[in-house]
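Duplicate of #3305? Posting structure anyway:
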């Protein structure tokens, strides 16, 4: 069992089947369990629902244009059910805006990246000997019946830096495979407060989330309820996390050698894989 500052190293290199080999270490897929304590989980969950959900680039703004403050409306009405506006939110894009249709980033389509989130991502990466200059993040809002299909994150202009993924709320089954779909994936049970860091070989491995497991966040939910008497927004947050998962995956988009001036990724979509 690994917790706190300790990280479990997962084998993503098809050349080796031994977890302590040099080939595995080059894979650099780390799972930091309990990397976020309860206060941090609540802090980032509140940031996600009350601030990041209002950013200019979400699945809702993509479809319908500017949106009201759905979380504030839910708190006012004490409703986060399927008929609420917030329930329909699935993702929000911070920093460089990811173009989901063309699968690329555009130089001039970006918003400010939150300093606190950048600092947190870099501090987590440093725990496993990596670094990241955070420039983009996708904040995913999963309902309990949500999922994410298998994919590779290869739209960034530089692929030399890790993806830092923070999970809060219901646990999820995270699958990580190889660079092609020929390799059978490894299943990892990711709980609230866990952080997955994809660097090295694992940075370009297929991965996905086939299942969210409802009712697996009772310890955090009970703690929020016990410490938030009289706070309507925190009580609603506890209700939301009982049946939902928030995931923030942070990445670096450019560096001195791989940028919008030197790369064609900003002009042409990536090939579908």
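Output from current build:
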């Amino acid at each position: 069992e690994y917790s706190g500052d300790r990280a479990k190293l997962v084998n993503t290199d098809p050349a080796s089947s031994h977890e302590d080999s040099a080939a595995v270490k080059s894979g650099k897929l780390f799972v930091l369990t309990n990397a976020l304590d309860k206060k941090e989980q609540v802090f980032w969950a509140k940031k996600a629902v009350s601030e990041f959900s209002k950013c200019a680039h979400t699945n809702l703004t993509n479809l319908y244009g500017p949106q009201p403050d759905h979380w504030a409306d839910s708190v006012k009405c004490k409703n986060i059910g399927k008929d609420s506006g917030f329930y329909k939110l699935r993702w929000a894009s911070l920093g460089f805006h990811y173009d989901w249709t063309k699968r690329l980033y555009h130089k001039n389509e970006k918003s400010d990246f939150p300093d606190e989130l950048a600092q947190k991502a870099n501090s987590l990466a440093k725990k496993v000997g990596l670094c990241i200059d955070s420039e983009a993040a996708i904040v995913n809002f999963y309902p309990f019946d949500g999922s994410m299909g298998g994919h590779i994150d290869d739209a960034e202009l530089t692929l030399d830096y890790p993806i830092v993924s923070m999970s809060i709320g219901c646990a999820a089954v995270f699958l990580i495979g190889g660079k092609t779909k020929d390799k059978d994936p490894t299943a990892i049970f990711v709980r609230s407060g866990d952080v997955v860091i994809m660097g090295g070989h694992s940075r370009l491995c297929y991965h996905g989330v086939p299942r969210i497991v409802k009712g697996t966040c009772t310890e955090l939910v009970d703690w929020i309820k016990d410490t938030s008497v009289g706070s309507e927004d925190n009580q609603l947050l506890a209700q939301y996390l009982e049946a939902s998962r928030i995931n923030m995956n942070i990445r670096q988009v450019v560096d001195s050698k791989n940028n919008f001036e030197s790369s064609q990724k900003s002009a042409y979509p990536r090939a579908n894989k």
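Confirmed duplicate; merging threads. The first strand starts at residue 8 and ends at 10. Residues 38-50 form the longest helix (13 residues).
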